[in-house]
Amino acid sequence: MSSAQGFLNDWVESRVGLGSNISNSRNTSVSYNIKGCWIPLTDNGGRRSLGSREEQGSVRCRRDEDRLGWFPPHFDVSDRMARLVASDPVFRKDNRAMLSRKELFKNTLRKAAHAWKRIIELRLSEEEASEMRFYVDEPAFTDLHWGMFVPAIKGQGTEEQQQKWLPLAYKMQIIGCYAQTELGHGSNVQGLETTATFDPESDEFSFIWWPGGLGKVSTHAVVYARLITEGQEHGVHGFIVQLRSLDDHMPLPGITVGDIGMKFGTGAYNTMDNGVLRFDNVRIPRNQMLMRVMRVTREGKCVQSNVPRQLIYGTMVYVRQTIVSDASSALSRAVCIATRYSAVRRQFGPQDGGVETQVIDYKTQQSRLFPLLASAYAFRFVGEWLKWLYLDVTQRLQANDFSTLPEAHACTAGLKSLTTSATADAIEECRKLCGGHGYLSSSGLPELFAVYVPACTYEGDNVVLLLQVARFLMKTVSQLGSGKKPVGTTAYMARAEDLLQSRCSVQKAEDWLKPSVILEAFEARAVRMCVACAQSLSKFQNPEEGFLELSADLVEAAIAHCQLIVVSKFIEKLQQDIPGKGVKQQLQILCYIYALNLLHKHLGDFLSTGCITPKQASLANDHLRSLYSKVRPNAIALVDAFNYTDHFLGSVLGRYDGNVYPKLYEEAWKDPLNDSVVPDGYQEYIRPMLKQQLRNARL
Ligand SMILES: CC/C=C\C/C=C\C/C=C\C/C=C\C/C=C\C/C=C\CC/C=C/C(=O)SCCNC(=O)CCNC(=O)[C@H](O)C(C)(C)COP(=O)(O)OP(=O)(O)OC[C@H]1O[C@@H](n2cnc3c(N)ncnc32)[C@H](O)[C@@H]1OP(=O)(O)O
Ligand SMILES: Cc1cc2nc3c(=O)[nH]c(=O)nc-3n(C[C@H](O)[C@H](O)[C@H](O)COP(=O)(O)OP(=O)(O)OC[C@H]3O[C@@H](n4cnc5c(N)ncnc54)[C@H](O)[C@@H]3O)c2cc1C
User: Where does FAD bind (predicted)?
Assistant: First the structure.
């Protein structure tokens, strides 16, 4: 796992490297360079109107070109793409909530086509294109094409199949989607009802299918179906199926395809054409089954390769890994909005008529906000680590080493579940942290929530995924006595005997500042919960029955294990060199906040397993409170470090210059209801009502 450090390092240098901006402190607090002078962000950022209602002009973060050279590629690429998108009128943010579905969708097509044009014109690399997609900030068919269709062919296709299909897909001469889910089956992939029956007479397959996928754009799909040859079933496999004509985009014979209709929220994920697809005896050539895992011969015989069957699920492992990094982005975006606004917003305060208190100074606000800020950083680090794990497993697979696949599956499934659930909850919390104005569309938070929340369901329902982690953990525990040493993220289980007995050494609040103490508490909690589940399971005659009965406890154990991974990767990160004066200390504080807040929220686990005493829990809470005061002076710098443009944030409350109130007022007048002073419908409904009341009053 040590090479994870390389990735983590990249991140720190590039993002916290922003840190170079927040490094020149004059005093103990982190500073931020605004208009060329270094000022400590101890309060409201001085020149920026965070904390003031007056317009302060457009103060910009200084990012000198010569400084950019210092940043490693990722930051540079990301920053360049953010600016490119923000300055291009085609990518302007429409008020998506106001658009009809057709307008919304057509706008998405326009932006995607323009993005592709720019990618070609500017000869953007894959990394640059991917950053561009991120900043365009609109779910589109291209996500599925690049994110699932292409990876499915790469991961499950033979060399020959890749050579045939990938060039077409790379040039977007075909557009593909990932058609796996049916009306009746999503989580249960082996239960799919779509069948692909091999017909040796004609060398073709036939399908019946009902997927979630792309309803209006894709010309092709990788369709998952149960393979049947010679009257026998051979499990689920992927098949490349052409859906629409490449000449006029009409569905091919036997194919019924369309959009499944409006989804949650206005705007939001409705830019995506999730679709319905029905096959009626559609025939495709035999060699369009992705055959890396299993080959079907001309005679209809199945030949298993040495690659494990689970590779059929490989695309999901890949996407789940990307979803973890995306969680950090969505969370950091919401936290950036809520933190900046909390510094602007004032309520209550001195009775003598002095200025009211910035809401960010209330301990309750800090105790809700700062753990979310810490989580955004934590998810970023664990996302980078997971990227490394995924690359590592991919390289091993290429060398026919399948040993780390189960762990990669458990980690991607578990961390996808943990981070998306936490992020969805956090976005909603950020909305509440912004009070009434958070409920306005112009805060950017309602749409962010609506667009984000399906991440808890797609790519695997979060509970179903945690149950996969629990299976992996139960297997690991059951092998503990067998001499098979647990490795990677379960290595701590090798010390199960010690961890079952260990006593937390904390005696005073500061003792909670030792990473080893925190780690041991989280390890002991996870091991104890896993072992307790394994013991309960062993009482069942039928293990599957036991697994169903105990599933709620198993999910809790899986969460404990996944939280341990996040905490341990954060701690690992801090063992490295981190450039920028004061940056490491800030990250350390965030790491403690992340861990101690989890401990506080899951106190029941820690106490009931005897990992810590009530007194130690109370000391942890005391310490947590004191850490909030240390984050407060640097909170704005820590969210500025995400380097989000106002265009990307799309939030009046999260504006960089803090000029919230005049802009809220300005934004209100843009609403179509304000196009006329007297509303449509006045004559028809309001006036007669008023007149009626007048007549009644006279009576
Ligand atoms: C403008 C810009 C232009 C260009 C842009 C450029 C670039 C853009 C690039 C990219 C964009 C990137 C990313 C974004 C892409 C997409 C994200 C956005 C939207 C997402 C859309 C959503 C898509 C979907 O939802 S697709 C459908 C997903 N479906 C699921 O997730 C189903 C969930 N169910 C399952 O996974 C499985 O069925 C199961 C729950 C795991 C159960 O499996 P099974 O029935 O087989 O049962 P078992 O439990 O017995 O398992 C058997 C065995 O297998 C192991 N296992 C299971 N899963 C896996 C796996 N995935 N990998 C490895 N191993 C696995 C399991 O542990 C068991 O092992 P053992 O036998 O050893 O115990
Ligand atoms: C916005 C969006 C985009 C999508 N895009 C695609 C796509 O591009 N391609 C594609 O193929 N699919 C796509 N999907 C489908 C998605 O992958 C599935 O909806 C998802 O995998 C969940 O499966 P399900 O709908 O069958 O949920 P279900 O399994 O029916 O879940 C319903 C409830 O049952 C519970 N449950 C289910 N099984 C168990 C169990 N074994 N134990 C305990 N509880 C259980 C779940 O926790 C959940 O609470 C998309 C979905 C959405 C929302």
Answer: 181, 212
Which atom number of ligand 1 is nearest to the Cα of residue 186?
Answer: 32
- Integer CA distances (angstroms), 205 to 166, 178, 195, 279, in order: 22, 18, 9, 11
Question: What is the CA(457)–ligand 2 centre distance, in A?
Answer: 5
Q: How much distance in Å is there from the Cα of 181 to the middle of ligand 2? A: 8
Distance 173 CA to ligand 1 centre (A): 26
Residue 34 contacts residue 47 (beta carbons within 8 Å): yes
Pocket of ligand 2 contains residue 274 by CB under 6 Å: yes
Residue with token string 């780390």: 404
Kindly list the domain boundaries of the chain, sorted by start residue.
Answer: 1-92+94-136+313-699, 173-307
Give the lowest-confidence range in 349-353, 503-507, 576-580, 649-653: 349-353
- pLDDT of the residue at 54: 28
pTM of the prediction? Answer: 0.90
What residues are designated binding site? 181, 212
pLDDT in tens, 405-450: 999 999 999 999 999 999 999 999 999 999 999 999 999 999 999 9
- The distance in angstroms from the start CA to the end CA of the chain is 86
C-alpha–C-alpha distance, residues 52 and 33, integer Å: 19
Q: What pairing do the DSSP bridges indicate for beta strands 357-358 and 346-347?
A: antiparallel
For a pocket test of ligand 1, which of 118, 319, 461 has the largest count of ligand atoms closer than 8 A to its C-beta? 319
Which CATH entry fits the domain spanning 173-307: 2.30.42.10, 1.20.1290.10, 2.40.110.10, 2.40.30.170?
2.40.110.10
- Single out the catalytic residue among 13, 407, 459, 556: 459
pLDDT bin (cut points 50, 70, 90) of residue 96 is: confident
- Which residues does a 6 A CB cutoff place in the pocket of ligand 1? 112, 115, 129-130, 132-133, 136, 142-143, 146-148, 178, 180-181, 186-190, 310, 313, 316-317, 319, 322, 405-406, 409, 458-460, 464, 468, 471
**Is 316 a residue whose pLDDT tops 90?**
yes
Cα 187 to ligand 2 centroid, rounded to whole Å: 5
Sequence-distant (6+) residues with CB within 8 A of 383 are: 321, 324, 325, 327, 328, 415, 419
- Examine the residue annotation and report whether 459 is marked as an active-site residue of this protein: yes
Among candidates 464, 372, 476, 387, which has minimal Cα distance to 419? 372
